Amino acid sequence: MHDEPSTAVSAPGSRLIDETFRQLEAWLSGRLREFALPLVEPRSAFERQVREAMLAISYGQTASYGELAAAIGAPGAARAVGAACGRNPLPIIVPCHRVLGAGGRIGGYRGGAEIKQWLLDFERRNFG
Known about the structure:
By secondary structure, this protein is mainly alpha-helical. The chain has helices at 15-28, 45-55, 65-71, 78-86, 113-127, and strands at 63-64, 99-100.
């Protein structure tokens, strides 16, 4: 007799990890669009600005690296914005997958272009 594998993940004694997994599960089921978790501040003011700009991109929407650069008052810093996005330690929670290259190119993503495209498609399907 084989038991079904558990899909629940938890870390005994860690409410933050349990809450993070609860919110990720809700996000993956399409019931959550914005995370409400405490975040450690990035080291630099520039990275804080980029993170805030990423968090401002609505679920199911995208923005370009250049648009984020302009939004934080650094027009022409699209590459620096891209580098800051690449250093994002909390993909999905801080939605760097919503940031695209010029002309809608997928651009880079720590998990790879296929994962980034999957995340974008997932959000678009659940956006309605």
